[in-house]
From TrEMBL:
One of its GO terms (molecular function) is ATP binding. InterPro entries: AAA+_ATPase (IPR003593), ABC_transporter-like_ATP-bd (IPR003439), P-loop_NTPase (IPR027417). Keywords: ATP-binding, Nucleotide-binding. This is ABC transporter ATP-binding protein. Transmembrane segments: none annotated. Coiled coil: none annotated. The keyword ATP-binding applies. Residues 8-235 form the ABC transporter domain.
């Protein structure tokens, strides 16, 4: 990690697609290492929020910035501090696990490539599959390769769109341990997830519905305010109330 201050800001972020309001006035302010979960039903705006934040999509209204740089003006220096794992893998099935991660290391122009690749492989516990071609791996394993590619340059703002889909519970737990390690090392980690129960791993959760922030709070506060036994029930209750 390069060090330096990390921050993520959104003010009134909104995006329409024709008549569909995908995102409607979302505010986020993160200025210290934290794991922020993005939760919400299908179509609630999680991916749209991520794409606007990363400058991959222009908002219809509002502003956002990463490490103080407006999303639509992110240059190479700031992008080099961001790790993004999209919902659909951007990896190569004819290359081996190690070759895929090395390819991303080269894209980032890392000088300590070999070491960075081995560190990323060990982070996702794929050292023993490093020479296997991706086309021979299961979906969950490919998800982990994609995560290794996302983290190889040691970013300090990490944005993960549904990283744990198709990953078994044991590996999911280990991925969350890894995210917490990154946070403890100084990173902001933003993770969208379908598995509402998994949001217990986050410091705070932003719960979206129909593009709007229904609530943003710590997992404990969600449980306390709803009186629910687990986060999944708490969120279902919020959806019914909201
Ligand atoms: N490129 C697009 N063109 C038209 N509509 C879009 C586009 N992208 C998203 N939408 C719409 O915007 C809304 C929010 O979609 P988005 O993908 O952000 O939700 P999501 O919470 O990430 O959903 P999921 O959990 O299913 O991935 C949905 O109604 C979706 O159909």
């Amino acid at each position: 990690m390069d060090g330096g201050d990390v921050s993520v800001d959104c003010v009134g972020l909104s995006r329409k697609f024709g008549p569909t309001v995908a995102l409607d006035g979302v505010d986020i302010r993160l200025d210290e290492p934290e794991i922020l979960g993005l939760a919400g039903p299908n179509g609630s705006g999680k991916t749209t929020l991520i794409r606007c934040l990363l400058g991959l999509l222009a908002p219809s209204a509002g502003t956002s910035a990463i490490n103080g740089v407006p999303s639509l003006e992110l240059g190479l220096a700031t992008r080099g501090r961001i790790g993004f794992m999209p919902q659909r893998e951007a990896v190569y099935s004819d290359l081996t696990v190690r070759q895929n991660v090395a390819f991303f290391a080269r894209l980032y122009g890392l000088s300590n490539r070999r070491e960075a690749v081995e560190r990323a492989l060990s982070f996702v516990e794929l050292g023993d599959r490093a020479d296997d071609r991706l086309r021979t791996l299961s979906g969950g394993l490919i998800r982990r390769v994609s995560l290794a590619c996302t983290l190889v340059h040691d970013p300090d703002v990490i944005v993960l769109d549904e990283p744990t889909v198709g990953v078994d519970p044991v590996l999911r737990a280990s991925m969350w341990r890894g995210f917490r390690e990154r946070r403890d090392d100084g990173a902001i980690v933003i993770v969208s997830t379908h598995y509402l129960g998994e949001a217990t791993n986050c410091d705070r959760v932003l719960f979206l519905r129909d593009g709007r922030t229904l609530a943003v709070d710590t997992p404990d506060a969600f449980l306390a305010s709803t009186g629910a036994a687990d986060l999944e029930s708490a969120f279902l209750e919020l959806l019914e109330e909201g």
